[in-house]
Structure to design on (229 residues):
């Protein structure tokens, strides 16, 4: 408010004209807390600070009680269409049609067609374990999707095994641990469970067309391998 009043006074003194100020309500979450840097939950328009995937997911994950408000605040969807979408949401909330409409529209507005397409493909890869979607993404994007996964640059050689790649990608510090976890089914490559440490990696299956391999150790630890041409 102080800045607005200072601006008002400056305009009046410099030009003699009458200036006008207006305010809008803060955007708050369901418990009344504001969004922002100080609150630690800022969603940035700058892709380098909030990736398109994270931006898209923010709106997909909104509580059901908030989605209609955000559709009206942040999109140009007509009121009649919003009412229809919300009726569909009420009838079949598990489909999350309102959330998808919101995420699509806001991501399109901020990041354009390419940003929306990237966010949708990333969502398919993450939640749908979609190999085709994964193969269409840049390794850097995949790293962002899977919690800033560690990225290794490795040389592919014929005969490289599951054990070889997890050790070179620094998934394990100890070779015996690596063999034990692989044999127990604790290693996934491109969403497929691996149980044989000595199985050779196959181009097209374990090495995707985008020259990348996604490794998951256990349930939450991800590693991205970018293969050198």
């Amino acid at each position: 408010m102080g800045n607005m009043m200072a601006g008002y006074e400056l305009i009046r003194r410099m030009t003699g004209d009458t200036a006008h100020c207006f305010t809008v309500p803060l955007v708050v979450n369901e418990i009344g807390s504001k969004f922002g840097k100080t609150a630690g939950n800022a969603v940035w328009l700058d892709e380098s600070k909030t990736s398109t995937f994270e931006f898209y997911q923010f709106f997909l994950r909104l509580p059901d009680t908030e989605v209609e408000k955000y559709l009206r605040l942040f999109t140009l969807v007509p009121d009649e269409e919003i009412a229809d979408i919300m009726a569909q949401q009420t009838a079949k909330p598990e489909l999350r049609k309102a959330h998808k409409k919101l995420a699509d529209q806001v991501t399109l507005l901020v990041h354009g067609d390419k940003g929306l397409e990237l966010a949708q493909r990333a969502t398919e890869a993450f939640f749908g374990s979609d190999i085709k979607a994964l193969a269409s993404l840049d390794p850097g994007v995949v790293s962002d999707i899977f919690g800033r996964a560690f990225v290794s640059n490795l040389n592919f050689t014929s005969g490289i095994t599951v054990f070889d790649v997890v050790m070179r990608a620094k998934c394990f510090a100890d070779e015996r641990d690596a063999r034990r976890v692989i044999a127990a089914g604790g290693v996934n490559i491109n969403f497929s469970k691996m149980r044989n440490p000595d199985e050779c990696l196959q181009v097209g299956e374990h090495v995707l067309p985008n020259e990348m391999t996604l490794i998951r150790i256990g349930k939450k630890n991800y590693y991205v391998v970018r293969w050198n041409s």
User: Anything to note?
Assistant: The two ends are 57 Å apart (CA to CA).
